[in-house]
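Margin note from the TA: students keep mixing up input and output lines. Inputs are the sequences; the output is the structure of the whole complex. Example:
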Amino acid sequence: MRVYLAGPEVFLPNARIILDLKGSLTRSAGFEPVSPGDVAIDTMPDKHELGLAISVVNERLMKSADAIIANLTPFRGISADAGTVYELGFMCGQGKLAFAYTNLADDYFLRTVAYYGGKVITGLDGRNRGHDGLSIENFDMVDNLMVDGGIDSCGGSIVRGNVAPEERYTNMRAFKECLNMVALSFGVS
Amino acid sequence: MRVYLAGPEVFLPNARIILDLKGSLTRSAGFEPVSPGDVAIDTMPDKHELGLAISVVNERLMKSADAIIANLTPFRGISADAGTVYELGFMCGQGKLAFAYTNLADDYFLRTVAYYGGKVITGLDGRNRGHDGLSIENFDMVDNLMVDGGIDSCGGSIVRGNVAPEERYTNMRAFKECLNMVALSFGVS
């Protein structure tokens, strides 16, 4: 069984070390890890072509995997990394098993309210809105309801961790819990 | 042919009007529009269950559609709305046709540099990084490379619009261009 490891750790200064650590934990849990960046990319004529080539490789790796564990820890804003969310959607669209985790305890509603500096109005329709009029989801979820709902629909769940800010992208506790749940789902011990 | 219309316009104060406008334009282009929120949801025991039920309905609508047009205009930050990105990934995972547009011309690199207040360092590996050490993608793309690359892989492309800030979520020019390209792809005139 192969597990695709999606998350913003690819952007860390020590990305390779963290990806290798996740890979090693995944092997210990009885699975073959598959990570973005596992395959070397040929030189390309320009940066746009290079980006497309990386995407093609990652999609191929996803298709080869049986499950995904997505790190939904908010990245440069209130939501998860867009690449990770795309990959989660892709795997759910393929009917693969999906688990996820976040290392930030605050739910999506709280983070969005903080984005508006705590200033939330109630619209005529009874929905919470920011000063820009945009409604604020309040469904007790980790991120947009399509993210949480998609994981639920494909048989998984989300682990909510809570770690010190300096460990936000490196702490492995919630990730290990996901590995345990994938093992339970696949009957691997 | 059914086209799923994904985008952050569901959060607008006049969401229904904008969704209806997009639906009407889609019909004029010869397609059946499918939008999140098209199906009424039963009352649920709590808000989390309600959120999950909305997700289930939207995933069912996506499965019924042949193509997606995703509005990737940045939403509360530098990336597209997480729900829209999930839906794009889901449809690409299902092998459906995907087109997208953004109403903000600046590419992902420029927006990320602006997020760091213009202060970008070059790491020992030659990559651009923010003060937090996180690397900054620079692939001449609209969003994370998995988003742009995924659309390319499933036969579509992204229209880059450029509209006044007050029209950011309502201007239909780039959306109409997407409709024209979907029509060309499906041989609908």
